[in-house]
Amino acid sequence: MEMVQTKVHHKKRQVVIFIILILLWEAGSESIQYSILEETESGTFVANLTKDLGLTMGELAARAARVVFKGNRQYLQFDPETYDLLLNEKLDREELCGSTEPCVLPFQVLLENPLQFFQAALLIRDINDHAPEFPAREMLLKISEITMPGKVFPLKMAQDLDAGSNSLQSYKISSNPHFHVLTRNRKDGRKSPELVLDKALDREEQPELRLILTALDGGSPPRSGTTKIQIVVLDSNDNAPEFAQEFYEAQVPENSSLGSLVLTVSARDLDAGSFGEVSYALFQVDDVNQPFELNANTGEIRLRKTLDFEEFQSYQVDVEATDGGGLSGKCSLVIKVLDVNDNAPELTMSSLTNPIPENLPEIIVAVFSISDADSGHNQQVTCSIDDNLPFLLRPSVENFYTLVTEGALDRESRAEYNITITVTDMGTPRLKTEHNITVLVSDVNDNAPAFTQTSYTLSVRENNSPALHIGSVRATDRDEGANAQVTYSLLPTLDAHVPLASLVSINPDNGHLFALRSLDYEALRAFEFRVGAADRGSPALSSQALVRVLVVDDNDNAPFVLYPLQNASAPCTELVPRAAEAGYLVTKVVAVDGDSGQNAWLSYQLLKATEPGLFGVWAHNGEVRTARLLSERDAAKHRLLVLVKDNGEPPLSASVTLHVLLVDGFSQPYLPAPEAEAADAAPAAPLTVYLVVALASVSSLFVFSVLVFVAVRLCRRGGAASVGRCSVPEGPFPGHLVDVSGTGTLSQSYQYEVCLTGGPGTSEFKFLKPIHPNFPPQGTRREMEENPSVRNSFLFS
Hints:
4-stranded mixed β-sheet, mainly beta, Immunoglobulin-like, 6 domains, 7 helices
């Protein structure tokens, strides 16, 4: 019997690849074929690709040339200096292609920038490195002595792993008078020996013969292998077993379980007795690759090893039936393995670019190939990625694909993509392979820094210490690295009156703002400037924000008394008639405070009086009034000490001294006693002279006041001239005084001059005059009170 095993899968695939390469070559494609002997040493020169592909010197290195074989094997490599194609390892043709001839390994040359493929193939030529081998060292033949000359007896074949002329070519047998050997060519291309009987055997003359069978290959020099043949001459048994069919054919799926019945063969023998009893055996058994077992009694052939369609697509098995007399018959079986979808597709990554820059469209991210070891419909595959990703799969030559970006990517929206490439075959059930890659997006400086607020309002209390941290601005940049590092700066201001460089500074690294000097609320209440934020990318991007600094008032100005004025040489005296009732308005203390808000709220208090309980001061408006009816027993002269205090923290204060004179009437406050009237009648004429002099003096002072007013308007400086015995404080007054509900604080629009005339009581003058200081007026309304019932010799202006 004889069993034939063939690796049809490899043979078919290599033949198909070779045919495709030949067709591409004939069609004028870029397919190139190189050849090399098997077992050639690693590093052997194979080809000059630069010349064969028509490229310029160094272009292979510049375009990152790679050689891609199926299954990601690297049989060839590039010389790192010349980029010549060299052998990467020793190649064994028999290991790579088995008995398939020619042995062709297709590969692709992959170039980048731009992406380009070149088809090529490596032909491995056989050398005679294997001798023919028989499956057994000895064969046993039992031949009946009645066998007629010319009878043919099949023998077990030898195997030679070489191909072509180096494979097994012929058989010969040792010299003997009874037999010669024939070499028969089988349909599968192999050569089998057949022993032919030339002369009838005689058991009684020679019951046993021993011959040597030699197998020769066609190499130079030829190699050979031998086996021994033992021939036993049997007694007469004139009928050999005969099979019902000389040729059997069966199909079995590759996923069949062990022990499955493949086929049952049957033979019969016409002889009787032991000569008619038939037993079965596999002819020429290879225990290593043989996946079948035969029941010697029933002829059932069952599976003893798992089948793999990708390894062997069919098996040729010879079955021998032998009777009790030693006669035998033979039949042949062809068992075809049916493919099932038991191999998942494979993905081989050839190139991967990571990371990729943002804002650039259609960037090649990866180049890969897909394959499936199954056949037919099971070998057809599809490739896909998730639809919600900004990437596309584009098919290239053969089973190569490129993964490209669909459009420009934005790192700030998404900096990392996890892409799953799914390869699915078309078999039943469908099998798939998933390959995950992570693609990072590198940053480009495409985002300007953005402030957390479009404008900032900061507050700082006046009289601050220099280098005080008054606040911060903050800007963020959506980029990363140097592109996101922000530097802060002060931008030039358009207001030339604001010396920004001497007021504030900014830390360029963190945006902290500092006051460079002490601020004065009375001089500068608020100022604005712009802050810039720029990143460190190329080119640098920037933005700006408005910063408003409000100076908060501090209680650093004590109240200032405008009236009555304190003049040690000529103090003012208030005249009060003794007939005044309780609540009579004596005068009004007028004071101002240079601060603002509650720091400028003034309150008045009578600290000390010559006669306590006679006079009182209203706390809110500074009016000095009589607390009770006056009497003749009250002293004529009184001295009052009034305290003016603001509402700051801590409160500041000022004091003023008032002189009050109680008189019987305003008309003749200084008339002599009745007994002295006669004595004074004589000097009546000098009194008239004095009155005329006084009137002339007052007129001159009036003209002088008008001139002073004009000078103030022209020079924007405050001033006043004294009239009589009272002096006027020189301005200007602070420009931010505010009237608070009649508390006595004057507006910036008026000054008051108060004088007491020194003439006789019959001379009375009253003037009210606005004085315009040299500071901008504010909109609060000011009032001035004058009591017409009090005819004191005061002049208010």
